Amino acid sequence: MKLKVLLVDDEINILKNLQAVVPWEDVNAEIVGLAKNGKTALELAREHRPHLILCDIRMPVMDGIEFLGALREFDADAEVIMMTGYQDFSYVRSVIRYEVRDYILKPIDYEELTRTIRRLADGIRERDAEQRTIQREWRQMFRLAYERVLYDLLIDAGSGTAKPLLKLSELSGGNLAFAMMLIDVEDYAKRGVRWDERERKLWNFAVHNILQEHFAGLEVPHSVLQMRGGEWCVLIERTPPESFDRSECAAWAEELRRKIGAYLKLSIRVALHPVSVPLERLAGTYKHLQRSLNLSFGGEGGVIVPAFQRAGQEETQRLWDWIEEMVTGLKRCDRRKTEEALRELNESFRRLPESSFERIEPILHYVCLHLLREMRAMDVIGRDDEAEFWSRIDRSPGIRETLAVINRLIDQSIDSAMKKKTSDVLMLAAKDYIERNLSSDLSIDLLADYLGISGSYFSLLFKQHFGETFVEYVTRQRMEMAKSLLALSDKNVTAVGQMVGYSERRYFTRVFSKYTGMLPSEYRELSHRREIKPVLSGWADKEQ
User: Fold this and answer.
1) Is 510 within a domain?
2) How does pLDDT run across 251-301, given as a tens digit for each residue?
3) pTM for the model
4) 274-311: buried (b, 16+ CB within 10 Å) or exposed (e) per residue?
5) Nearest-angstrom CA–CA distance, 57 and 270
6) Which of 290, 355, 351, 285 is nearest to 319 (CA)?
7) Count of domains in the chain?
8) Cross-strand partners of 80
9) CA–CA separation, 45 vs 378, rounded Å?
10) Looking at the domain assignment, is residue 337 inside a domain?
11) Dihedrals φ, ψ of 274, to 5°?
12) Residue 265 domain boundaries
């Protein structure tokens, strides 16, 4: 941070000496203005907003005391050093109320002045860093609350969303609307059962970062929300709602497919809703895109823009309604609602004529995929059980057999979900949030606020559940992710540090060295010598 300095004195020789003798470059400061009186100094201060002002007391036109009074009306932060002779020292009392930082007596001892300037410069930079940290934390807290409301709206979380929805509408003047883009990793449900926990985290982390980088580069207001493993909903904001350019949105989607394919060797499918979606219609639009994407065999280029329900589809719509009720009940651990929806779903299928089976079969297949992904996200199914279900689905069962699979999935999900204590559910949500936000600022207060509990209770639950403190857990997660990225990608050390939440390379290196016993560069070199399979080697660092 380069400091801006304003020098004010009616003696030209003193101004010249201040310019020449003080080592401004060493202090990382630049002189932005010179003034011979308070009036000129005031104009320069308004224009440049200096961090540090050296000012004489006795001057023509406007003296130092009058200048300070006018300065503090619009700038309370600038540090001021007053320069005064022995005969003027009685004036010191008059400037105390203007928060003068220090006083230098004339004739000036330039060595003493330099020491004072260095001390004040350090203080200014420390305060600036603190303010930036506070601002970043406030932005993060606001973003956290904002995205939590959007996420709850998307999944139709229920009555608890009504108040946040109202506040969000008031904040935007009722004009907030979005284009929606749903991104899904192709065959993720099947891939997920083959990946171990480390691989699953790494792939989701990598895709999420590419999405964030892509939309940040477009400089459009947006939110990237991971809905579950391998699925993200991107909301592109418009206030007031304007017509969205369909071809522009489609171009963004195609570019995303290209990037993820080139860097990660993964295929994604994208469903678009480029028409403005108001807050109250987010859940319905999200579900519609999700169904369309999972029942589609891919549109042109893997990007689809689905139409809404047409006449004659009421029967299918009723099936979808029961499916959504069933999944919602499962997420809320509501046994009665889930079993009731499952019973209605079974009855609906039994009433269908055989001529409808061919059309309904893809829906049943989607239900199986949908349930397996939700169960994995809720941590209510093990890898072995999931593999067994997949083997049954891969045998292409008929309608009755598929219904039997769905019934068994639901029974197992309800039993597992009901066994989980409230504290376990909270900690699962905390774990999921940490995984999705490793690159952001994370703190106990942020997570406690996200979960709606106190910070002290969160800390207690966290230590009981994970066997380590929040800081220890987050550091370990970040270091393990950093190790994977160093070994499996071409990102440079600075970029890797930033991706796991460390903005400064030096601090990241220190934490990494303490955790692993070696520098990041040394770890990468050792990993390459061991010939670790570079699953992310295509994710090249474009900024190296």
Assistant:
1) yes
2) 899 999 999 988 888 889 899 988 888 888 888 899 889 888 877 654 445
3) 0.61
4) bbbbebebbbebbbbbbbbbbeeeebeebbbbbeeeee
5) 68
6) 351
7) 4
8) 53
9) 58
10) yes
11) -75, -10
12) 172-304
